Each structure stands twice: as C-alpha cells, then as structure tokens.
Amino acid sequence: MYFSQNTDEEAKAEVFDSLNSMQDSQPKKYLGLPSLIGRSKKQVFNEIKERVGKKLSGWKEKLLSIGGREVLIKVVAQAVPTYTMGCFLLPKGLCEDLERMMRNFWWGQRHHESKIAWVSWSKMCKSKFEEGMGFRDLQAFNLAMLAKQGWGMMSHPSSLMARLYKARYFPNNDVLSANLGSNPSFAWRSIHQSLEVLKQGTNGG
Q1: Which of 32, 185, 191, 202 would you call most buried, defined as having the most Cβ atoms within 10 angstroms of its Cβ?
Q2: By the 8 A CB rule, do 98 and 81 touch?
Q3: Could you read off the pLDDT of 64-100 as tens digits, one per residue?
C-alpha cells in the first residue's frame, strides 16, 4: 500500500486495520511500471529507449534481409513500449527518438554512419494497401491504447477502476464529459488526452 506524503498517520492506521496484513511501502515499480512519475517524464521512461536500443544494436551487426528487418521492428522493437503505452502517455520526444532508431535500423545503419531515408517515416507507417509498410505511428498508437482504457470505463462502469476514476474526476458526468480536474494523476492525465479519439470513434467520426 502506498500513501501520499499528505496522509496523516491516523488515516494510515485506519486503512491498515481494515486491510489486516497490508504494509506501507513505496516501490519504484509496480508490474513493471513506475509507481511515481515526476516532472521529468522522459527520464522516467528512458528505460524503454534503452531496451529498444539494445535490441536494435544487437541486430545491426547481422546481415538481415528487408523482410527480416520488417519482422523484427514490428514483432519486437515496436512491442517493447506497448504495455506502458496502455497506461501512460509517453513524451512526444521519446516517441520520436524510438521511431528514429527504428528508421535508422530499417535503412541499414550499422554504427553511427548516416543513411539516406528515401521515404518518410509517416509514409512507412501507412498500410501496405496505401503503399506503406504498416509500421506503427507510436504517438497515434499510444492514444489508441489509452482510449481503450476510457472505453473500458464506459463499457464496465461497475469495475473498480471505473468507480475510482469516476469518484475522483467525474462524479457528476460520464467519462466522455470529464474534465481534467485539479492536481490529476499522470495516469488520468494520459487517459484524458485520449478522450478525443474515443469521442470520434463513438460518434462515427
């Protein structure tokens, strides 16, 4: 159980009494995700960049076909941040860094030499039916994953997650009409950023 620094000892004791064996702790991570996120979002999520970088670096020395590079980017490199993207909105700069690393790998960069990107990454992210490669636009994918959380709250309003967020941020409205609120958590701020995507989807836009 983690308590805010503003929680007084009497309130903590009351919660512990009701939860029996629960103890106070401040883990840096929970289920692989950071428990606390401060001002420097990029620094907190830098581990994702390091993990993707290590995988790409290991592949750069191998003679891979275009098909092989495509599979590795889609199945491995782009899958690394997926779990985190379902809970938090990654900084725009981090998404751009990850896409640059994947783009360089695709065009055959081995060490630190520059390679010409003959096609823009936005074009590469289009489907193959649109003459692209079907790679993910990480920022758009991130918003889609977060919109799924909002859809979950709409579809299952009696779930613990939906009831907690409703009590804290939109007690008198539904999730689509919710305001950001005062002093919101980073998780709610992330979901709130995706609500426009959800509105467009539910309105058939």
Answers
A1: 191
A2: yes
A3: 888 888 999 999 899 999 988 998 999 999 999 999 9
